[in-house]
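Q: I'm writing up a methods section and want to include an example of the input and output format. Could you take the sequence below and give the corresponding predicted structure tokens, formatted cleanly so I can copy it straight into the document?
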Amino acid sequence: MRVRGEVFSGALRGTPLIEKYYPRLVGLVGFRPFKGTMDVKLERSIDIRPFSSKTMEHVLTNGRKIITAHLAHVRIRKFSAVYQIMELRTKQKEMIEHAKKMEDSAERFSIKTSHEIDEPFYDCWAMQFMNGIYGKDIVELIAPEMIKEKLELGDNDTVEIEFTEIKEPHTNRLPEPGGIKESSESSPANRGNV
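A: Here is the clean output for your methods example:
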């Protein structure tokens, strides 16, 4: 799933947040993250749990597990103004479908310019905290480098984020207590008896 969002300077909690969870994040994502996040306000609210392959969690003294945040591997790219023009052209194309000449012209425009504006994707991780200060319309992105510098982004720039849905993992459940019974032949008392 691809969704667009706008880069913004959030609550400036990225550095302390990364420092707080740094050892856990290194273990989860497999790299040393830049000590800061890039905040993106999405065009619509999205719960990233279906796309999440990692969670930051802790276990309470009573044994209950609490999930602090969900992490999803994502690819992002800068969404340039030319893409927005192409989007307008697509809408125009739908409105004048009966005019073949205009339709051909719009298709040629799309084909000619698509290679010139194809921004590369950049791999990073999106985080959504369960009881954080942001709602589901905001993700915090982490990467080994400062994403804003790497992609030459500033506040109010538009990015496209590509989420990949995670299939439900197959769990290897342990049998219920008392669910496996030893046969009299395999019991320790009978081993070695012939």
